[in-house]
Amino acid sequence: MVASVGSEIVNALSFAFAMFWEILWALVIxxxxxxxxxxxxxxxxxxxxxxxxSPRSLAVATGLGAASSSCSYAAVALARxxxxxxxxxxxxxxxxxxxxxxxxELGIILALLIGWQFTAAEFVGGPLMIxxxxxxxxxxxxxxxxxxxxxxxxxxLSGIMEGHADMDMSVAGxxxxxxxxxxxxxxxxxxxxxxxxxxxxxxxxxxxLIAGALAAWVPDSFWRGFFLxxxxxxxxxxxxxxxxxxxxxxFVCSIGNVPLAAVLWxxxxxxGGTISFIFADxxxxxxxxxxxxxxxxxxxxxxxxxxxxxxxxxGFAVELIFDALxxxxxxxxxxxxxxxxxxxxxxxxxxxxxxLASVLLVRFMRTGGPAMLRMMNAPASPPAxxxxxEYTCPMHPEVQQQxxxxxxxxxxxxxxxxxxxxxxxx
Length: 426
Hints:
The protein is mainly alpha-helical. The chain has one domain (2-373). The protein has helices at residues 2-40, 46-49, 55-66, 72-84, 89-101, 104-113, 116-140, 143-153, 162-166, 176-181, 183-217, 220-226, 232-250, 258-267, 271-279, 285-295, 297-324, 345-366, 369-373; strands spanning 391-392, 400-401, 415-416. A hairpin with a 7-residue loop joins strand 1 (391-392) and strand 2 (400-401). The longest helix is centred in the N-terminal third of the chain and has 39 residues, at 2-40.
């Protein structure tokens, strides 16, 4: 019996590692491209760009979100930050949705593990979900609720990834290409790349481990029964309704839920249900608790209800659209069990992009990265310790002042001088 249990554990770990190996190069290129975009897109002007819930503001919010980090916790923290600075709540939530559901790396991983149709569904369903959310907010959100949420947000209760969301290392001046290829641009890219990895590696690891365990231990018959696979019409109705509920209880967010989505798709969840499951990373239980801290109980329940409704409706819409176009895959062969490590194009790509990751990591280590990494979960504005305390920037130690504030070069919150000893070389 012990041998049998050990074998099952080995099988689960092997499934998890096989999926990780399959998507590793895509994760590297996705985070590298995202880092390059963040290096030339400033966070400091976001609030002024999102003054209302007009179509223009929602489009800008969607574009800024798609160019931002894929970490759900960082997206939630940044959405509160721009809301506190005066951004419209609907546009801030649209930014938050796009930050986790319309990013480059999510689309690549979906194509690799489940199929290109799911990537297409992401980019169709994501904007549709944002439109539906805006309509729900316009119909049911009252100004009094917004003011109560703003007062709660201004209390500044800490969530997760506050420091990461507060960092702005974007490079200004010159063409986009010159900014990316400059020394400051290279440094900014390396910092965003490593810190984005640091912010989501737990979710990726947990998602892979849970997916491996489910693939190894849960029989297909259970999934087929749970997702009503023998009743095609009910399956299409049930999938988008149950997908977000499964996501809520999985505790996995960001792109870490894609391996789980692969298991569920193989198990019999509908196409629209898979999409609604992927979209539901912003209503998992830990994030709902952060909403409670940020905006209060009343707004948390409102966000849960409207987010869930928008996710379900988007899932239904994607199901109908892709079914009408004949784009729903006829087979369920997501790369869970058949994925394995061999000397093929995946291995070659992994070697090449791991070399790129190594270059960025070295740059990160040599330019004050470790000190900034320690501040990822720090509050955005640390309180003063004493009148005599001197504050400086971990990345730009030449910045020194007697009051807490922000670095004029990178936007980082300044820290007491003793906390930034390992500032690196510039």
